[in-house]
Design brief:
single chain; 513 residues; mainly alpha; 3-stranded mixed beta sheet; 21 helices; elongated
Length: 513
């Protein structure tokens, strides 16, 4: 549901613009081609059964993430599907970039150049912090779909603000409900997009915005957002009651961690400052640099247009990136869905200003190419790190399965004990938070289940369906016996006992006297 005017803008900006189409498609291929064709099973993929088909704590209904359940029921694509999941996710993310390009062109009355849109889409698509979420194959499709629905929700809200037609309001609310149905963090992507629209309208679109107008316009956007949140979580509550899945309220949720807002804010600042000062994780460093550059340009436009509201809009745009992290109490990279939009919008400010001069135009275009290429290098490096981690673990799975078949009576239950502590199965770089986390580490006693059903499913995903799950008593007995065993891959890390087989992954801890 869009107006004819927007359709015309979309066609002229996107469909008929071969330069933008082909450059953005090329960047998407360079960014995600490796991980699409060299798939790796992530730490949540083999736990999909737990998240979607059990009533244990933390499944998607209890977490209020109904998009995962809906997509699984309709398409069956939330469980691990090599190639297709990552490919569909990349296509959806590319399409969300095109929607944002058309939206920003729409609100600025066509004043953004094609090259400016190429820079925005290139930075947005290749912003490398997305590796933290993309390696969760379980989440790829729903997360990228939420980017699309949030962009569409912003467009419908914009139409509602200017046309006052209720159908756009209803469409915006429905789209936003789908946006937050995958992750709560998309609430703040919407807020980031809202302030981006205000900023671009004011400094590029030549729209006069004073403080009162910004506040009044914000109320329309907030009405859509709050309505979507309320309606969606009423539906969640109904589904949870119907499914008997209310257990999530008995524990801390991702919305509340038990700390006060001041404590959470301090922790977020500490985490972010640590990431910036190390100068080693490109997307966080890039976020800091573009925040500073964007602030300086906001100050310039504030002075040029004699409008203090511009600096306030930019500050709120900046702060919108922290909302979910303050709720979580830590700056969590895999929940930083708004950073690619923020950095891309900041780049629009810079490019639009500097491309007016022939000398600075070439300089800013070359700088943009450099930034995008660096992001592509970084993103592919992180995808390779995850791939290398997976290849290690595939070797471990095949080796263990071979030993079980050749050395043991596989009719006995297999108990996996003691998560690996020596780092052999982990290649995680300390600068990130998720990439490189071990499947085996996560699978052993996942969600507190010492019977390790996730480990058995992991072996089944690789063609080994002969493992028998132990009883709780057998698992507890095996844990005691494993305290004297060597850790894998040493010879004595796998032992057969009368009632079960133990595969132990960590050497016994030696306490100093």
């Amino acid at each position: 549901m869009v107006t004819k005017k927007f359709k015309n803008v979309f066609y002229s900006t996107i469909i008929d613009n071969r330069k933008l189409i082909w450059s953005s498609v090329l960047i998407t291929i360079l960014a995600y081609g490796f991980t699409i064709t060299n798939f790796s099973i992530g730490i949540d993929d083999f736990a999909a059964f737990h998240y979607l088909h059990t009533d244990g704590w933390g499944n998607m209904i209890q977490q209020g993430r109904l998009a995962h359940v809906l997509f699984e029921q309709i398409f069956g694509i939330i469980r691990f599907v090599p190639f297709l999941n990552d490919c569909i996710g990349a296509i959806l993310f590319w399409f969300s970039a095109m929607l944002f390009c058309a939206l920003f062109q729409y609100v600025t009355k066509g004043k953004l150049s094609t090259n400016c849109l190429i820079v925005f889409s290139g930075i947005y698509i290749s912003f490398s912090i997305i590796n933290e979420k993309y390696i969760y194959n379980l989440d790829v499709v729903v997360t990228m779909f939420s980017y699309v629905t949030v962009a569409y929700a912003l467009l419908c809200t914009y139409e509602f603000v200017h046309n006052r037609k209720r159908r756009y309001c209803f469409a915006a609310i429905a789209a936003m409900m789908m946006g937050i149905a995958s992750y709560e963090s998309f609430v703040f992507v919407y807020l980031c997009g809202m302030y981006a629209i205000f900023l671009l309208e004011t400094i590029i679109g030549e729209k006069r915005m004073n403080g009162k107008k910004v506040v009044l316009t914000s109320l329309y956007y907030m009405f859509v957002l709050v309505s979507a949140i309320i309606i969606y979580y009423i539906i969640v509550a109904i589904v949870q009651v119907a499914a008997g899945q209310m257990g999530v309220f008995e524990r801390d949720t991702i919305w509340f961690n038990g700390n006060g807002i001041i404590e959470n804010l301090i922790q977020v600042i500490v985490n972010l400052a640590y990431g910036i000062t190390r100068f080693s994780y490109l997307p966080i460093l890039e976020f800091a640099v573009f925040s500073l550059i964007g602030f300086l340009f906001a100050c310039y436009y504030t002075w040029k247009k004699r409008s203090l509201v511009i600096i306030w809009i930019f500050l709120f745009l900046f702060l919108s990136n922290f909302g979910i992290h303050i709720i979580l109490g830590v700056f969590t990279y895999r929940a930083a869905q708004s950073l690619c939009l923020f950095v891309g919008v900041s780049a629009i400010m810079v490019v639009t200003f500097l491309e007016a001069n022939k000398v600075t135009k070439k300089l800013v275009y070359l700088s943009a190419v450099f930034v995008i290429v660096q992001q592509l290098f970084d993103l592919n490096q992180w995808f390779y790190i995850d791939y290398a981690r997976y290849k290690k673990e595939v070797f471990a799975i095949h080796s263990i399965a071979t030993r079980l078949v050749t050395e043991c009576d596989v009719s006995k239950p297999v108990v996996f004990t003691n998560r690996p502590s020596d780092g052999y199965l982990q290649v995680m770089n300390s600068d990130n938070q998720v990439n490189g986390l071990s499947l085996v580490y996560r699978g052993i006693a996942a969600f507190g289940d010492v019977q390790s059903p996730d480990m058995i499913r992991l072996f089944e995903m690789h063609g080994y369906d002969f493992l028998e799950q132990p009883t709780l008593e057998q698992a507890q007995d095996a844990i005691e016996k494993s305290k004297e065993m060597e850790g894998w891959p040493k010879k004595e890390s796998l032992k057969e006992f009368d009632e079960f087989i133990i595969v132990n992954f960590s050497d016994p801890v030696v306490h100093p006297e």
